Queue: 2 jobs
Job 1
Amino acid sequence: MTSAVVVGSGPNGLAAAATLAIGGLDVTVLEAAPTIGGGTRTTELTIPGLLHDECSGFHPLGVDTPLSRHVDLGARGLRWCWPEVQYTSPLDENGRGGTAVRSCRSTAAGLGDDEASWSRLFGRLDTGFADITEDFLRPLLRMPRHPFKLAQFGVPAALPTRWIARSFDTPEARTLWAGVAAHAFRPFGAAFSSAIGVALATAAHTYGWPVAEGGSRAISDALAAEVRDRGGKIEVGITVTSLDQIGPADVVMLDTSPAAALTILGDRVPARVARAYRRFRYGPGAFKVDFAVHEGVPWLHEPSRRAGTVHVGGSYEEVASAEAAINDGRMPERPFVLVGQQYLTDPQRSEGRLHPVYSYAHVPAGYTGDATGAIITQIERFAPGFSDRVEATHVRTTTELSRYNANYVGGDIVSGSNDLRQLLFRPRLAIDPYATGVDGIYLCSAATPPGAGAHGMCGFNAARAALTAMGRTQSSRH
Ligand SMILES: Cc1cc2nc3c(=O)[nH]c(=O)nc-3n(C[C@H](O)[C@H](O)[C@H](O)COP(=O)(O)OP(=O)(O)OC[C@H]3O[C@@H](n4cnc5c(N)ncnc54)[C@H](O)[C@@H]3O)c2cc1C
């Protein structure tokens, strides 16, 4: 039987393993950490009974993908829960802010004078977004299946974030846009810095920003169940540093950073690939604080009390300045903070009136300071009385994040800077970006297309590339 070894059990490693197992290969997954899941683990980080997502929390791009159509994750226990409000951005003015819901029309209607501008930008993309995602969830150097729709998406995506901001007049629409655009971790003046924001804002209208019932670990648990049910094995506590540890295998998938792939492959990697992996650039970092909070966060902006995600940064200008600073290697006094309230739609994560609240600040790469105070001050600014409600905290610095998971180099949670080159061609310019140049060995982590997120599409695409190279017909679950 043809055999495959997958190094790393993040959503991409497990998606690759499941796809190879469905393709008839004998699969073994080797994971460095004591538990599977990579960026999709859920743990009682603060107080027993409170379920905190350690990394990914929201999954707008995981709901309907070629992977989710190939592997029946619902049959493996994955259920999505949608918050009533998808995301918000509160402003300083008493109770004001921007609010995004799962309808472009209703979101636009809440933006006053910017109703038409929001509808013009996102309404056109909302119709047929499934076709657009099918193309951008694949490597870009392929013939698009829906070229006209992809081009429609490409026009706003190519713009700097601040150009799109100019089409909005109200502080509400401007900060709503800033919050969603900040997910790219890019300076707002950079070309293509809008791409991720445009995708996530449109996805909020089309798919919502759902959480996984019981925690994001349900994603990796479902993928792992598929692997095991098809005879695959998963071993934990094994850090792979060399191919010699793996033994003979027809296919090897590396759910690792390009830097770790270089170490594992050693001098087998062709020089041009080694150069590209060495040149691979990592982005700014994240500083994560999880809270156990009595009665939740007392936001002044009422819709934020019902939102899954709250983007905390103030006005558009403040968020733009904070993102510029972290890209410049400076820690802003008022960082951009993302707050997650997954428990609102998935109450089993709470214990009575004590709720798990998730947050991380955008900080410079490898930031060595303590951002806990800055995060609390930012939340308190829009939710006075918040700190009095905090019962316990759990902090993970950039250094701890990269120790926790080697793929988050310097605390970079998007597995490589989303600069122009890497947004379009990561980890290198190649027809098959998953190929490492060593026969049968592929990179399948979020450092490959389509990039970060717990959608598993990097692993799925890499596994399909391997199956195609072996001349295997790609059977589906049916
Ligand atoms: C704080 C935070 C918040 C996030 N929020 C979201 C979100 O809301 N939505 C979303 O979609 N995404 C989010 N992400 C990003 C998402 O988690 C990642 O993009 C995704 O997990 C990448 O999957 P992966 O399989 O490529 O790598 P990972 O999930 O990082 O998994 C890699 C695995 O490989 C293992 N490994 C690495 N090297 C080796 C080795 N040499 N030997 C053995 N094992 C190895 C690691 O231990 C790890 O388990 C977030 C990430 C973080 C950290």
Job 2
Amino acid sequence: MILSMIVAIDQNNGIGKGDDQLAYISADLKRFKALTTGHTILMGRKTFEALPKGALPKRRNVVITRQDNYSAPGADVVNSVEEALNLCQNDEKVFVIGGGEIYKVFLPKTEQLYLTNIEHCFDEATVFFPEINLDEWTVECHEGPFADEKTQLTYSYQDLRKKK
Ligand SMILES: NC(=O)c1ccc[n+]([C@@H]2O[C@H](COP(=O)([O-])OP(=O)(O)OC[C@H]3O[C@@H](n4cnc5c(N)ncnc54)[C@H](OP(=O)(O)O)[C@@H]3O)[C@@H](O)[C@H]2O)c1
């Protein structure tokens, strides 16, 4: 099993405001779908509840919560990091898809990072990605910058792999 993370971050590592995303860049959402479809996505209970149509199709959805008997239609529910890793141990690729709390606890166990770097500082950000020590990572791929017409945001993709 390869544990990966996929996240869109701003220049201050901002990733969200309250329960909401900072930006919706349509090409980035398509890339998210292309990368994660057919694989497992692992998310915190708050991120799951913010999905507009619930569990995402054509992917195994796993939700982590400390609540007993939490019901997440279309998703498997786990109560700890260890339980999540055990459940997914035979899955080829697992993408941690947020949010802030879940990125923080899984980052030390993560081998690959799919970053969307948004060239903007959102003053309204309240949720942040943990600090990444770039000495520990190799940049495998860099694409962009691209401009998103709808939001007027500039962004680029960076795929990182943890050094052995
Ligand atoms: N930019 C991006 O790519 C991106 C992606 C995803 C999300 N986001 C943003 O991130 C924000 C949400 O993040 P968040 O940090 O507020 O919430 P979150 O990480 O989605 O979920 C937090 C919840 O996960 C559960 N949890 C956390 N640690 C746990 C542990 N060790 N064991 C078991 N359960 C655990 C708890 O659920 P219970 O309270 O039920 O116990 C906790 O309340 C939103 O603003 C969203 O838009 C951004």
